[in-house]
Structures are given as structure tokens and as C-alpha cells.
Amino acid sequence: MKCEYHHKPSFLFSDRYQSVRIMEILGLISVPTWLFCLCLILLSLYLYTAWCQSVWKRLGVPGPEPVPFLGIMNRLFKQNLNEVDMDLHKQYGRVVGVYQGNIPVLLVADPELIKQITVKEFSNFTNRFDLIYPGEIMANGVNAAHDDHWKFLRNTLSPTFSTGKLKNMMPLIQNNINTMLEIISEKSSKGESMEMKRLFGGYTMDVIASTAFGLEVNSLKNPDDPFVNHAKIFFSGSFTGPFLMLQFMFPRLTNLFRVLKISFFPKSLLTFFEDVINKTIQMRKEDPDTNKDFLQLMLNTDKERTDSGGKHIKGLTRNEIYGNSLIFMVAGYDTTANTLTFGSYCLATNPDVQDKLIEEIDREIADKPLEYENVMSLEYLDMFISEVLRLWAPTPR
Ligand SMILES: *[C@@H]1O[C@H](CO)[C@@H](O)[C@H](O)[C@H]1NC(C)=O
Ligand SMILES: *[C@@H]1O[C@H](CO)[C@@H](O)[C@H](O)[C@H]1NC(C)=O
User: Fold this and answer.
1) Whose CA is nearest to atom 12 of ligand 1?
2) 341-383: pLDDT as tens digits
3) Nearest ligand to residue 268 Cα
4) pTM of the model
5) Is the pLDDT of residue 6 over 60?
6) Is the Cβ–Cβ distance between 63 and 40 less than 8 Å?
7) Which of helix, strand or coil describes residue 312?
8) Which residue lies with its CA nearest to atom 12 of ligand 2?
9) Whose CA is nearest to atom 5 of ligand 2?
10) Domains in the chain: ranges and CATH
């Protein structure tokens, strides 16, 4: 069908507020220009989403019929992500093609294929996909960096988890455990009940603050500590909504956000942590002896490189230090607190497992201080934690 319209409107009427042009299509029906434009826009949007959401069909990958612009995201109003993924795998098999908004996502639940992606063919899958633009600082996090930048950060930061570093962190962790034990015995001597997520959340925050930043925040005892309050904003996710949705619907916007340096993290939040890290760095300059935490490890790095713009850089840039400190906190907090919380739930509901675990700890450690070696010797604990992680994965995907 061919649409024709006269450039000169056949009718024109106007009042004080607006003028509406009437067009004729094929000389038969008259439509106002705005309606015509609206239809054109809606049609383009529909074609856009239909094109974006045709990838898996073209490749012959099974999956659910996507909802325009939302893909499978409308399901998240009713179910959580884990449940959605499980249902999809039950219905469509081990490899499912879905759309997160207009972004094609392949769900893989085949162990062999996962191994191929993450090990054998890893060089083809180095980068995580740019789901959203996380802002200038967070874009320097090891999870968001690309290619050689990723490789550099990964190699620089990995030693944090070396045996030697972990051994040095044990006294810091022990301090936080002691505080937690005090609270537990105080509550239990009064016969009071406890919200475990809050307890383990506070404990985890304290461990991260001390092992990553060398800070004593004691969130278990001062839940209103500004560090804790700001950290909590990160996990509420309340600020991500509209920007996130916009990028899911129009994936190319990610590039625009990158160019304009628009971050969906509130500026006040980033400035607060920047300030904390700045002060800590300043303190380190005065007392450079501390050599056990993550921040120090980053400060000590003196590897040299040239960035993509040909600029010579020694060590880590400020943004790399900020971004990776925040990632350390973001990645460590909820995952650990949830695992401990579900672990305590599993022990409460499986008293025989609890007895066995107590028996092992009494046998291997008893009253000795916790050390890297004696914790590593707890085989049953290791099995227990693995099972908790299998049953209650702390993060989806
Ligand atoms: C992986 O990348 C290499 C070169 O970078 C290419 O030759 C190869 O075909 C890729 N493999 C797959 C499965 O795409
Ligand atoms: C942190 O220090 C850097 C470099 O000295 C400075 O540019 C930045 O403004 C400081 N940030 C805050 C929040 O004070």
C-alpha cells in the first residue's frame, strides 16, 4: 500500500492553543498530522524491538516468545530471576535464547558448554557483556574492564586471595568474629531472638571494611555508622530503576551514557567512598607499614604500562583504585552475608549436620586461635558450605 499526502494541508484550523493539520491518505481518510507521526513512531519502535528480538529465532535457538521491549523482564514482576531461569530451562532445555529488554541473552545450563566458554575457548569470551554503563569509576572495576585492561587488573588484584595475604588477614577477621560472638552470647544469655541476616550483614561489612580498607567501622555495634549506611544504599538498588530499564530497552544508549559520563550511582555515594579511600591513602603515606589489606596491595602496585591513548601509567590510577575497592565491597557483602544466613538456617533445620560440624571443629580447632591452616583442615565444613552454596546460590547467574 502506498501512502500519499499533500504537502499543503487540505484543512487548517487553529484555536488559541494549537493548530491541527489534517492530512488525506489516498484521498479517502483524513488524519491529523500528529496522529500520523505518532503511528509512524510506534511502527518504528515496533520494528526496532522486533528486529532486536529476532536474533535467536534467526539462529534457531529455542526460547520463549519475547514481549516487545521487555523480553522476559515482565516475568520478574512475578518471580525472581532464579525461578524464571529454572522455569525456562525446564521448558526449553539446557540452552535457551531470551531477551533482557531488547538485549539477547543466552542461558546455558550445560556443564560441558560452560567449561568450553569459561576455560577452553576463554580467549573468545574474555569480556563480560556491557549490560549497562556503570559510570566512570565503576567502569574501572575488574568486572567491567575489557581485554588488556581487564587482564592487567585481574593480574594485579588476584594476589589479594593468595595464601600469604589471607594468612595476614586472619587476625583482622578474628577481631570481628570476637565482636560477633559477644553479641550472640549477650543475646542468648537473655533468651532473646536474633535476626541472622542483620547479624551476619554487620559482621560481613566489618570484615570487608577491615580487610579491604583497613577501617574499623564496627557496624555490629554502630549500625548507623556512615560507612555502613552508604554501603547499604549500594545494595538497595533503589537508584538503578529507570536508567537500567532505559538501557535494557535501547542497548545502544549504553554508548551515549559512556560518552556523556552519566552514572546511575548517585554522586554523593561515590564521593563518600572516594573521600574514605582518599583519607585512608593519606593515612598510609604517614604510616606505610600496614601491608595486609586490599587497598595497600593496590597502592603497592608499580607495574608500568601505556593506556589505549598512549599515555604512560605507573601503578593503578585513582579511578582504578576507587572502582575496584567498591567492587570488592559490592561483590563481597551480600554474597557472604547471604551464605552465612542460609548456612545457619540449614544447621537449624538439620541438627545432625550441626552435630557433625561441631564435632569436627572441636576435634580440629577446639580452643586454638583460628588460623589459615586449621580452618583449611576442616573438610566437613568445606562440604557443608559447598552444599549451602548449591542449595541457596547467593547471586543469580
Ligand atoms: C575464537 O577466536 C579466534 C581468533 O580470535 C577465531 O579464530 C575463532 O574462530 C574463535 N572461535 C569461535 C568459536 O568463535
Ligand atoms: C580524592 O583525591 C583526589 C586526588 O588527590 C582528588 O582529585 C579528589 O577530589 C579527592 N576526592 C574527594 C571526594 O575528596
Assistant:
1) 124
2) 999 999 999 999 999 999 999 999 988 888 889 999 999 999 9
3) 2
4) 0.77
5) no
6) no
7) strand
8) 275
9) 278
10) 1-52 (no CATH), 58-125 (no CATH), 148-331 (1.10.630.10), 350-397 (no CATH)
